[in-house]
Design brief:
single chain, 259 residues, alpha/beta, Rossmann fold, seven-stranded parallel beta sheet, Glucose 1-dehydrogenase, SDR_fam
């Protein structure tokens, strides 16, 4: 119960990694405001949190809209009658496309969600936390932020931006007692990865499942990650056990990418 009675806000909490994070934080004792672009999925996560025995609320948020992010950080305190202490900027999208084919609209959308959304998510959380001199922010980066790919160029760029922004905010917020870190998952077994596998298989003339299997073969630990692998690291960073860690990106890739 490292996070007992703390209030956490998780964006993109409706499925996959975001849902696993919300549940793990609740298991550690936190009350959770689950947000997602899909309000039904957000409510399903909130319901699962309540079954664990913690308080939970759900609301629809498009992180590409700074006004909505600002509003929801204020909502966290109102709903739980306690200050926001944990902010997890998890919401994000992928784009799998050759660099020659990316449109300006696709570029703008992925930047708006993955980079702009994280920036203003951190800004809103920082404004809610700094007067109390306490809080922690965790951002969802990726091993893609440390790599390059001709098929994921905009995605790689936005995740590199998350890593850089994490460092800048860590420096800016350290005087207020607020820690800022990010996590960088590798291959994580989610519905999103299955969709990407299907697209890659079609692009490369392979059977469905082959691209994923080939990638997993490169992982030293010999398996794909699961959302709970990421959630455990986020819970650690949110806790006092990580009290002397800020500005870092912890890679969760089974050894696929090492720094």
């Amino acid at each position: 119960m490292r996070l007992e009675n703390r209030v956490a806000l998780v964006t993109g909490a409706g499925r996959g990694i975001g849902r696993a994070i919300a549940l793990r934080l609740a298991e550690e004792g936190a009350d959770v405001l689950a947000t997602d672009i899909d309000p039904e999925l957000a409510e399903e996560t909130a319901s699962a949190v309540r079954k664990i025995g913690r308080e939970a609320r759900a609301t629809q948020v498009d992180v590409a809209d700074p006004a909505q992010i600002k509003e929801v950080t204020a909502m966290a305190e109102q709903e739980f009658d306690a200050p926001l202490e944990i902010m997890v900027n998890n919401a994000g999208i992928q784009l799998l496309k050759e660099v020659f084919d990316v449109t300006p609209e696709e570029w703008d959308r992925i930047v708006d969600i993955n980079a702009r959304g994280v920036f203003f998510g951190m800004q809103a959380a920082a404004n809610a936390m700094r007067e109390r001199g306490r809080g922690t922010i965790i951002n969802m980066a990726s091993i893609a932020g440390r790599e390059a790919s001709p098929l994921y160029a905009p995605y790689c760029a936005t995740k590199a931006a998350v890593i850089s922004l994490t460092k800048s905010f860590a420096l800016a917020l350290a005087p207020y007692g607020i820690r800022v870190n990010s996590v960088g998952p590798g291959i994580v077994d989610t519905d999103l990865w299955d969709k990407q596998d299907a697209v890659l298989a079609q692009m490369k003339g392979l059977r469905k499942g082959e691209p994923k299997a080939q990638r997993i073969k490169q992982v030293p630990l010999g398996r794909a990650g699961v959302p709970e692998d990421v959630a455990g690291t986020v819970a650690f960073l949110a806790s006092d056990d990580a009290d002397y860690i800020t500005g870092e990106c912890i890679l969760i890739s089974g050894g696929l990418v090492m720094l």
